[in-house]
Specification:
Layout: E1 3-6, H1 17-24, H2 40-49, H3 56-73, E2 76-82, E3 91-97, E4 107-109, E5 112-114, H4 116-130, E6 135-141, E7 145-152, H5 155-164, H6 176-187, E8 195-201, H7 212-221, E9 224-231, H8 241-244, H9 257-267, E10 272-274, H10 277-290, E11 301-305, H11 308-327
Parallel strand pairs: 3-6, 3-8, 8-9, 9-10
Antiparallel strand pairs: 1-2, 2-11, 4-5, 6-7
Helix pairs in contact: 3-11, 4-5, 4-10, 6-7, 7-9
């Protein structure tokens, strides 16, 4: 979409400056000796009949020059179509746990009780939307890990694949090590200077071909930072016999926080704990600070500067007025 705009529109506040200058500043003092002549009254009458320098018809060229100068100072330009966005940015893989424990309904979303996956998908979708300029990929894991979406700039496709995921899609166990290993394979051959894995899980590694710590060591060797997010509330009520007796239990008892912290430490990342909606929002904001999107601003546009036109017109009009004054001088009369 093309559009016309002024880069410094506040310059137009200078338009009344000549009027203010004439209105408020005192007139210049004249120290020359006055010449008293008997026919001064007749000369003043002749002057009133002649077209004077301060007549209204003689002021408009000077006002037009001032308006043109102010327009040039405001830097008018014409914005063309958006330029292509550079493809350089972060390569970020998102690994999401779809094991059976993600069914626990110990989270709140807009005042309603929801399971862990629902909350994660809702807030992770907002996080994806903010990652303009980065290439994102999506790994879903349970008993196995697989790439749901390769690295791409298409954030809407990533969000759609995230929304279509469901618990048990990859099995009901938790293969954290395999998920990290699969992310390494996708990131290690990419030329980007910054490679990141955001690992979201609510349990401990229960299956897989490689241990999480061994996979984290490989990630550190390839300069891949891992940011694990442990999901789950501290206390809750189970829907079985525990709720009948009014007993409280720890719904995150299976969460292996020690291993997740060690994974973050080995790779230069940071571990986060998400106990509720507020924690999740703060975590994604913290990730934006630690790994800011390289192209999060507005798209660049091709701009055609237009200020030489009013500036040139003001110059031509000034030259024309100067030439007219020279021609009207006594030497050319």
């Amino acid at each position: 979409m093309t559009m016309f705009e002024f880069h410094w529109p506040l310059c137009f506040l200078l338009l009344p400056l000549p009027w203010l200058y004439r209105r408020w500043l005192p007139a210049a003092e004249t120290r020359s000796t006055a010449l008293q002549v008997s026919f001064m009254t007749r000369l003043q009458a002749i002057r009133e009949l002649a077209p004077g320098h301060s007549a209204p018809g003689r002021k408009w060229p000077y006002l037009l020059i001032w308006v043109l100068l102010v327009c040039a100072a405001a830097r008018p330009h014409w914005l063309g179509e958006a330029l292509p966005t550079a493809t350089s940015g972060r390569d970020m893989m998102l690994a999401l746990d779809l094991s059976g424990s993600m069914e626990f309904r110990d989270m709140q979303l807009d005042g309603e009780e929801v399971n862990r996956l629902t909350l994660v998908k809702h807030l992770l979708g907002e996080f994806i939307e903010r990652r303009r300029g980065d290439r994102l990929g999506l790994i879903l894991f349970g008993s196995q890990a697989y790439v749901q979406a390769p690295l791409t700039h298409d954030r809407s496709a990533i969000a759609q694949w995230l929304d279509e995921s469901f618990i048990g899609l990859a099995g009901r166990e938790t293969a954290i090590g395999d998920a990290i290993g699969l992310a390494i394979k996708r990131l290690v051959e990419e030329p980007a200077a910054s490679r990141v894995l955001v690992l979201i899980t609510d349990g401990a590694n229960t299956t897989g071909n490689v241990s999480p710590l061994r996979a984290a060591q490989l990630a550190a060797e390839h300069q891949i930072r891992i940011f694990p997010i442990g999901v789950g509330a501290d206390t809750g009520t189970q829907d079985s016999s525990a709720s009948f007796w009014g007993l409280q239990f720890d719904p995150s008892i299976e969460l292996d926080e020690d291993s997740l912290r060690e994974i973050a430490q080995l790779t230069g990342g940071e571990y986060f704990r998400a106990r509720n909606e507020t924690d999740m929002e703060n975590i994604y904001q913290r990730l934006d600070q630690l790994e800011p999107a390289l192209r999060a601003g507005l798209p660049n546009r091709r701009a055609i500067v237009l200020y030489p036109w009013p500036l040139g017109l003001a110059l031509l009009l000034s030259l024309a007025l100067s030439a007219g004054m020279v021609l009207r001088s006594p030497r050319h009369a």
